[in-house]
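Worked example 2:
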Amino acid sequence: MVIKSSSQFRFKRRLFTTVLIIVVGIFITLTNHSSPATPVTKTKNVILMIGDGMGWEMARAGAMAKGYNYTSGKGEGLSFQTLDNYALATTYGTTIAPGNGVFSTGNSALSNSNPITGASPILPGFKFQPQFNPGDKPSGGGKNLNPNAVGNLVGYDPQRGGINPWTPGNDPEYIKYSYPDSANTATTLYTGVKSYNNAISVDIFEKPLETILKTAADHGKSTGIVTSVPVDHATPGAAAANVNRRNKYDGDYPTLDNILQQELRIYQPTVILGGGHPLTGASSQPLPTGVEPPTKFEYITKTTYAELSKNPNQNRYNYTFLERGKDAADKLGTTAAKLDPNMGDRLLGLYGARGQEGNLPVSTANGDYSNTGLSIFSLFGSQGKNPDTVRPLLAGETDKSFIAKEINENPTLNDLTKAALAVLSKDKDGFWLMVEGGDIDWAAHDDNIDNMIGTVLDFDKAVKTTIDWIKNNGGWENNLLIVTADHDHYLTLNPNFSELLKEKSAEALTAESDSMKAGHFWGSNPQIKYGWGNHGNRPVPVYYQGKGAEVLTNSVGKGFQLYGDDIPGIGGLVDQIHIYQTQRKAIGNRELGELGELGELGELGELGELGELGELGELGELGELGK
């Protein structure tokens, strides 16, 4: 046991106080970004649109549904395919093993003895060694023969996996190994740092990372998060929170070690629109590995919801709150037109269809929303042995009236995008916006080509709206648009898929269990249609255009720095780190942010974990200080 002198203790206490003041000051600057200290530079508006799980084959299926067929490259037929530039990005994260243990993509470098973010000790003897280690299992695999803990990068091998999605590699099983999740990949897209599966903008040591949303806010820009899934899911959550596990959705006030409370009280994006409404109910279906089953108030606690729903215009979070209800899209549009971010206005909209675990109504390939109300957001949810076929009907409701009601009471992703642009565009300093088509991923987990095509086309409508907005608001000289996926799924379209889609329908091909007759299969075995319901590690498409786009173009084949090491690039490919760097350089140099990454200032857990310090309510609750 080491005994510290009283002078050492006083020094550390003074250091802690100084660091805490800096942290509070940074968050105050963030939450008061309507009066920026640092002028905006370079690109006025930066927009990142993420099709969750929308790999190359998913985009190709969407294009085929519109009558276009191609077998390589960017393709055509969808709005995002009209953008000038195209690349493929690697998506891999880290894999970590304790001493003499097994490597796992879900491990941080901490012991996980304390669930609080950053509060556990570092694994004994841990050392990060940047060599590529793909493992031999979906979760990682491979034995660490070292008595000390080791961290590696998963990496990507174009020989085994293919240099591009239309050129198969020499190992069909390789695509399944050590696949990334949405938390890990979103963290990279927003922070430029690779981490472990489940990480929400924390590094492998669970230290918080500065997100591009915060950087934009520090530059005086308004910020926005839009999604078709719950607003505290991994992809939206990682833009505006720092927690060690993606399933820390919400907690009762005044706790902060969760996504929603950090979104609402610390990061405070100007606009938050998406799913997660508690009326949407729970699932009885199996969920993908790492995704926890939701309960009715899984994505928002009863106390948080009560505060917002009872005080839609004057609540502790200082948001104008909208929720699912009659004529939801019209009400959203009217409200968005009235709000002004220059006056400190902020908008939070919470939606979701009944029976769909917090997600917006899902459009099928023909756009009829016929699957609304069914549990289709889980592994083999509609293609398993016990698919959900019963909607949670109220007394007197029919399936037809149920669907009509849910469509009326929920905006589409396109509606949400229009509303976000209407609010954010009023900021003369510009904005950063993320729009996610999150239900593409759920359709792919379900191996449901009908829902997958429908969700890709829904996402593409939002892209078209954004492109049209750009053309009418400063053009490409003032805007940067990047459209990409966070990760891929293991889908293969057979050469006959396009013709079968024309002859039959996406619904019929979904129901067809014979992979040859269905024209597609999931996984590595062409003879087994439903052979895989999880992510894959193939590079994903990136479609982009606008001011600053050359940064990404010039990154092809280039490496990057990570955890103090130089990581080599892969010929013909970029990495998601380069997508972050492109956004970062488009926003421009900063002054305030150079005080240090949040992680360098001291992870919340190391500062004494907010709860142990007396919870921020006693210290001056960061959100309250910044209001």
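The chain has 21 helices and 21 strands. Residues 1-41, 282-287, 591-627 have pLDDT under 50 and may be disordered.
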